[in-house]
Design a protein that fits this description.
GO terms for molecular function: protein serine/threonine phosphatase activity. It comes from Panagrolaimus davidi. Its EC number is 3.1.3.16. This is Serine/threonine-protein phosphatase. The protein is of the alpha/beta class and 284 residues long. It has one domain: Purple Acid Phosphatase, chain A, domain 2 (4-Layer Sandwich), CATH 3.60.21.10. It has twelve helices and eleven strands. The strands form three sheets. It has a four-stranded mixed beta sheet with strand order 1-3-4-5, covered by helices on one side. A four-stranded mixed beta sheet has the order 2-6-7-11. It has a three-stranded mixed beta sheet with strand order 8-10-9. Strand 4, helix 5 and strand 5 form a beta-alpha-beta unit. Helix 7 crosses helix 8. The relative contact order is 0.15. The structure holds manganese (II) ion.
């Protein structure tokens, strides 16, 4: 799991407020669902299980998250300071350990960079915890889409089996609908651009990102800017001096070099790119 990085403050703040996402201000959560989300967070943080909650209650959280995310654009904004999380991949105990070390929303903001499911054993718990936070604090929690939030991937790498084993395949299908509505890219305080994978040669300026549509089919996930935001990687070692090169490791998308990153930051007038997608073994 990539360790979260805490961005406290930023050097340049735009006078124009672009952080306001109207649908999130308008979203009203019914009191009974608010209560359910709070009870689930309590159970998940303290006991790390969802046992005792019915399938109907789990579906209720998923359905409400779907409705909240539907109006969200593919490119969103968030103010600093924000705590950014990389790949969680079903490693629920690690996520809880990090959350316990920091202030949770509404005392802080959380930005997740995708790949919640597959590999680890507790993807359902991770997703439901994130959805509960999102429902209770929609402006303080943003959940981007990773390349594993695609049925083609999570059918094969563990999530489907986890759903089938625990609550049934209908649960797996319900999650796919939410994945299709997750944004792909988030600009933090106008200075830091974040995504799961990386940048794209097809991003010609901020307007490319404003025009971006959320991919809803395999074909839409597998092309253009959407594919690159979820799949590309920075080049390492000797390759880092090259600009754009085919990403042989993934057999999809691109790898980009150091100069390309600098050019991209100049083009978009940002300070840095924060991304996930490459798991690292860290001993905390
Ligand atoms: Mn990934």
């Amino acid at each position: 799991m990539n360790l979260a990085s805490n961005l406290s403050g930023s050097t340049a703040i735009s006078s124009v407020s672009i952080h306001h996402l109207p649908h999130e201000s308008k979203f009203v959560l019914k009191p009974n669902i608010r209560g359910l989300a709070k009870r689930m967070i309590y159970r998940l943080i303290n006991y790390q299980i969802l046992d005792g909650f019915s399938d109907a209650e789990v579906y209720c959280i998923i359905d409400n998250t779907l409705e909240l995310l539907k109006p969200a654009p593919a490119f969103i904004h968030m103010p600093a300071p924000v705590i950014i999380f990389g790949d969680t991949h079903g490693q629920f105990a690690d996520l809880i350990r990090i959350i316990k070390r920091v202030d949770a929303p509404p005392k802080s903001r959380f930005l997740f960079l995708g790949d919640y499911c597959d590999r680890g054993r507790k993807s359902i718990e991770i997703l439901i915890l994130l959805f509960c936070y999102k429902l209770l604090y929609p402006k303080d929690v943003q959940i981007l889409r990773g390349n594993h939030e695609c049925s083609k991937m999570n059918r094969l790498y563990g999530f489907y089996e986890e759903c089938r084993r625990t609550r049934g395949t209908q649960l797996w299908r319900k999650f796919q609908a939410v994945f299709n509505e997750m944004p792909l890219c988030c600009l933090v305080e106008n200075r830091i651009i974040t995504m799961h994978g990386g940048i794209s040669p097809d991003i010609k300026g901020m307007e490319t990102l404003y025009k971006l549509k959320k991919p809803k089919t395999h074909a839409e996930c597998d092309t253009g800017v959407a594919l690159d935001l979820m799949w590309s990687d920075p080049a390492a070692g000797a390759d880092s001096c090259c600009s754009w090169q085919f990403n042989k490791m993934r057999n999809a998308s691109w790898m980009f070099g150091t100069e390309t990153v600098k050019e991209f930051c100049r083009l978009l007038n940002i300070d840095m790119i924060v991304r996930a997608h490459e798991m690292e073994i860290v001993h905390l």
